[in-house]
Amino acid sequence: MSGNPHVYKFHTKDGFLRISAVKSTQIVREMTDTLGLSAIASVGLGRLTTGTILMASQLNDGQSLSIRVHGDGPIGHLVAEASFEGKVRGYCQKPDVQSVDVKEAIGKGFLSVARTMPFQKEPQIGIVNLRSGEIGEDLAYYMHQSQQVPTIISLAVSLDKEGSVAQAGGVLIELMPDAPEKVIAALEKNTKEAPPLSQQLSAGASERTMVESYVHSKDLVETQHPFPVQYFCPCTIERVERTLTMLGRESLSDFLKKNKPVGVKCEFCKKDYTVTLARIQELLFDLETPN
Ligand SMILES: [Zn+2]
């Protein structure tokens, strides 16, 4: 496999359907290795991440999404974050979970979507109850509820015999409000009849072929999203220090009393950071000295 994946975007010439598709195998594999995910955790977080990549590709410059699945099942909560620029990371609370399927691993609960925009301090947050726990349907339900746009999201992560990630990908189809009944009916029919996405991915289908299995149109206009998808965590020692500072004066003093440098592990990329005692002293000084 060469290079990072890209999201491909399509629309029908009549403007009734807007579609994104991605083959995210490389990203899901990297995430599985970094986070030490069990087979079922790879499938669960892989689906969420693939869906988040697709949704983020519909945003504007500088915007990003952080999508959390809060279920009561053994996988705990899942987080996937993606920016319009294609930077992606994820987190799974119980990476070694064993379960029969994703639905059972997630259980019942809700899904929250935080959309961050440049020049806005607070993200926009939307919350919906989990419909199926299969993730694709849950994300589609969120899109329909929050933007009044009927959406189909099909996500697939398939495993090989050893339980490693074999293929991952997804398709997101938005139905514009003025779409006539016959376009809607055709899309529903095709969606029911389309071969499973995992099967298409295993057969080496292109993004366009995957989309054409849902949208039987000769008039699909294809464009490549300008940014490649990249597994990337923006954590830095400065961010770690800022987080420590936010714990407040007392916590910083406690660290000093314990007389040990503070070790912090980024929960997204597992990178280890050490904040020295001298640095904690400085952070405390800055906190106590208003400028
Ligand atoms: Zn990190």
Q: Name the hetero compounds present.
A: zinc ion
Beta percentage is 25-35%
Radius of gyration using CA atoms only: 21 Å
Low-confidence regions: none
Q: Could you say which overall geometry the principal axes of the C-alpha atoms support?
A: elongated
Query: How is the main sheet built?
Result: 6 strands, mixed
Structural class by helix and strand composition: alpha+beta
Order of helices and strands: EEHHEEEHEEHEEHHHEEHHEEH
The strands making up the biggest β-sheet line up spatially as: 7-6-3-4-5-11
- The number of strands is 13
The span between the termini is 52 Å
* Overall pLDDT metric: 94
Oligomeric category: single chain
Helix content: 25-40%
Total helical elements: 10
Overview of this structure, please?
By secondary structure, the protein is of the alpha+beta class. It has helices at 25-35, 39-56, 102-106, 136-147, 181-193, 197-202, 207-212, 237-246, 249-258, 277-288; strands at residues 6-12, 17-23, 64-71, 77-83, 87-92, 109-116, 124-129, 151-159, 165-175, 220-228, 230-231, 262-265, 272-275. The strands form 3 sheets. The protein has a 6-stranded mixed β-sheet. A 5-stranded antiparallel β-sheet has the order 8-9-2-1-10. Helix 1 crosses helix 2. The longest helix is centred in the N-terminal third of the chain and has 18 residues, at 39-56. The termini are far apart. Zinc ion (ZN) binds next to loops. Zinc ion is lined by residues 233, 235, 266, 268-269, 271.
